[in-house]
Amino acid sequence: MNELLATEPDSGWKQVAPHLDAALGELSQADHEALTLRYFERKSAREMATVLGTSDEAAQKRVSRAIERLRESLAIRGAVVGGTSLAGLLSANAVQAAPLGLGAAIAASAVLSGAVLHSAAASGITNALAMTTLQKTLITASVALAVGTGIYGAHRVSSLQTQLEALRRQKEPTSLQGEDWRRQRDEATNRLAAAELENARLWRDAADVLRLRGEANALRQTARDRATTESIVGGWAARIASLKQRFDQMPDKRIPEMEFLTDKDWAAATREADLDTNAGVREAMRTLRSAAKDNFLDAMRNAIRKYAAAANNGSMPADPAQFAQAVNANPGLFPSELTQLKPYFDVPVEDATWQRYEYLRPGKLVDNLSNLLVNEIAPPADPEYDTHHGMGLNSGSVGPVNLIADAVTAAAKEYARANGGQMPSEPAQIVRYLKQPVEIALVQKYLSSLPADTVAGGK
């Protein structure tokens, strides 16, 4: 350390030193932190990686990028020096560059930063979002001051230790000189102890400031996460509102079971839907209608179990086989018609909803309760985009419904039978075979999508 302090700055350092503070001030927080850890705190790549939470290689690369940006900033000020030379100059002179009198500054900075964080904690995350640029700047400045002051304190301790060691190595003086020597030794020892205490205090202050910075960064990250979540939720809400508006414009696409839809169902139906096209909107509507039917049939499944339990003195076996055996032994445990289940629904069910299903009461329940008990009989709300549902106590069925595609396929098969298995190529060829009116554009759409083996030979 004595040799380092005694070395005169070379011409490169004389060129760089006057502009160093200003150039460092223009660096980003990440670059400034990397240079501070490497050249002011003298940390190795592994120690830097631990502090920064990265790998050794990533920490070294961060330092190299920071050196290059510092070199560019210095070059603008007329201090032209290579990246390697600049790294060497910082390594040799960084400790000397630490300014004097930072003890009071770091104490004041720590107090001020503490006040900022206390205010943020007292006000909560919401007030943290409103953290002013001045408060953020004070936190960052406090960290820089703390690190610089700690290095300066370390230099003072090292210098005093060197002086004390030199006194200890002197030969034993005369009695008169010995009195002065002991006095100087005691003074140096006292100064060393005081410096070590001061150095420890400065590093504690630096640690506090670093902790404050970490907590402030955590608050900022929480604020960013909340803003992202609010943006996503807001986007979903807008899409849901748009789809509900389309249902208002096409009331014939609604079904009574939609009263069983949840907010989650609406969000799921709109998350991936293309609401800018008519086909995308109709697909989203089909998804919602299917979810509504599922929810209603789930409620009906529970209602049947409740009905059976009420008819069996308040309970039924949980085991499927035992449940089936109990119902088979006493058919009165099952309703004779679906409307008898009304009292066992948590919400009232419209009569129009019951009329959309038929009750398939089985003669005997199988042990795994896979019997289909309820079947949807209502016509599709959308002849191209709909689903058909069935329900059992431990089973269910869902299938796509597209009456237009079915009509075109059937007409194509009739044409093939009448023409020796030849596949129709034009909509006009199968119009006479259609059992219901279909727009020519839709005939072309579904005819072109039919695989050849679908109509070949009338299959």
Summarize the structure.
The chain has 459 residues and is mainly α. Helix content is 65%, strand content 4%.
Q: Can you put this structure into words, describing what you see?
A:
A hairpin with a 2-residue loop joins strand 3 and strand 4. A 4-stranded antiparallel beta sheet has the order 1-2-3-4, with helices on one face. It has helices at residues 2-6, 11-25, 29-40, 45-52, 56-76, 83-93, 102-129, 133-169, 175-249, 263-271, 278-311, 320-329, 351-354, 403-418, 440-448, 452-455, and strands at residues 357-359, 374-376, 386-392, 395-401. The protein is mainly alpha-helical. The chain has 4 domains: 1-97, Winged helix-like DNA-binding domain superfamily/Winged helix DNA-binding domain (Arc Repressor Mutant, subunit A); 101-249, no CATH class; 251-396, no CATH class; 404-458.
Q: Notable features of this structure?
A:
459 residues; mainly alpha; 4 domains; four-stranded antiparallel sheet; elongated
Globular, elongated, flat, extended or rod-shaped: what is the shape? Answer: elongated
What average pLDDT do the residues reach?
80
Rg from Cα: 41 Å
Strand order of the largest sheet: 1-2-3-4
Beta-strand segment tally: 4
Tally of helical runs: 16
Ends distance: 95 Å
Count of domain modules: 4
Helix and strand content put the structural class at mainly alpha
Major β-sheet annotation: 4 strands, antiparallel
Q: How much β-strand is present in the residues?
A: under 5%
SSE series: HHHHHHHHHHHHHEEEEHHH
